[in-house]
Amino acid sequence: MPIKTFRGLLADSANITINLATNDGKIGYMIRSLQLMAEKPGAVHNENVVKVYTAKQTSVDAEVNFEDQTLVGAAFYTQDASRVYNPSTTVVFDKVIFNQDIYITHKMVDESGLVNYYLELEQVKLNDNETTMATLQSIKTRREMYFPAGPT
Fold it and tell me: Distance (Å, rounded) from C-alpha 68 to C-alpha 48?
């Protein structure tokens, strides 16, 4: 299936939307790759956390919680300006198919520089049952995010 790519420069506390939703929901997506690179490689110290969600985030932070059902990807980028160690990227993905918009957040861990992102999504053709399941899963996780279950 075709690959869609997105790229950009993320400011601190960025919270951007990647528009993917279609009228019929028959196209799904799965993250293939997420790469990060400093705006000024080798010039400044960088520590950045970039996360990809299936639900719009009300706040942006540097905490990564793998129990969050809306989190589908996370990356930590670090670069030492003194070049004592090489730049590194750690990326984790869920093999989740989604057919709605996704959201990217970025938080600087310290007073570091901006970071570029490059995101590759693989398009997946969905049948009627898969379309229904992907849409219902999206609704369910968003509902749980805004209306958490209370004590029973």
Answer: 19
pLDDT tens-digit map of 124-137:
998 877 777 776 66
Q: What is the CA radius of gyration of the chain?
A: 17
Pairwise CA distance, residues 97 & 90, whole Å: 21
pTM: 0.83
Tell me the two tokens of residue 150. Answer: 């209370």
What is the SS3 assignment for 43-109? CCCEEEEEEEECCCCCCCCCCCCCCCCCEEEEEEEEECCCCCCCCEEEEEECCCCECCCEEEEEEEC
- What residues does each domain of the chain span? 3-146
